[in-house]
Design brief:
Blueprint: E1 11-16, H1 24-31, E2 37-44, E3 51-59, H2 62-72, E4 76-77, E5 80-81, E6 83-86
Antiparallel strand pairs: 1-3, 1-6, 2-3, 4-5
C-alpha cells in the first residue's frame, strides 16, 4: 500500500503599513483574532536592522484569510493604518550587480606596463 502525504497549503497574507515598532509577536497575536496563525513574519532591512514596514501572516484556511482581510484591512495597529490582502508570488527580478559598477570596463585605466609616452630610459 502506498500512502501519500497531502500537503494542505496555508494561505499567506501581505500586511503593509506596519509601524517600525510592530514585531512578529504583536502581528501573530493580532491576526489570531481571525483564526489560526501558522506564522507571522516582519521583514527586516539588512542594513539598518529595522522593519521595512511590511510582513506576512500565514493562516490555516481560506475562510480565515478572508476573515482577517475583512477585520484588519484599513484598520489601525500601533498607530498605523494596515493594508491587508492575499500575498502574490514573488516576481522574478533580473540579477543585481553587486556594489560598484565600472560601466563594463576592466582594469584601472593606465594601460599597464610602463606606458609608451615616457621620456628617457632606464
Amino acid at each position: 500500500m502506498i500512502r501519500y502525504k497531502i500537503n494542505i497549503m496555508a494561505k499567506k497574507l501581505y500586511v503593509g503599513g506596519l509601524s517600525y515598532d510592530t514585531n512578529e509577536s504583536t502581528l501573530k497575536d493580532t491576526f489570531a483574532q481571525a483564526g489560526t496563525v501558522n506564522s507571522a513574519t516582519v521583514i527586516i532591512d539588512k542594513m539598518s536592522g529595522r522593519s521595512k514596514g511590511f510582513g506576512f501572516v500565514e493562516m490555516s484556511s481560506d475562510e480565515e484569510v478572508q476573515k482577517a482581510i475583512e477585520m484588519f484591512n484599513g484598520k489601525e495597529l500601533d498607530g498605523r493604518t494596515l493594508t491587508v490582502n492575499e500575498a502574490r508570488p514573488m516576481e522574478s527580478r533580473p540579477p543585481r550587480s553587486g556594489g560598484f559598477d565600472r560601466g563594463g570596463r576592466g582594469g584601472g585605466g593606465f594601460g599597464g606596463g610602463f606606458g609608451g609616452n615616457r621620456r628617457g630610459s632606464f
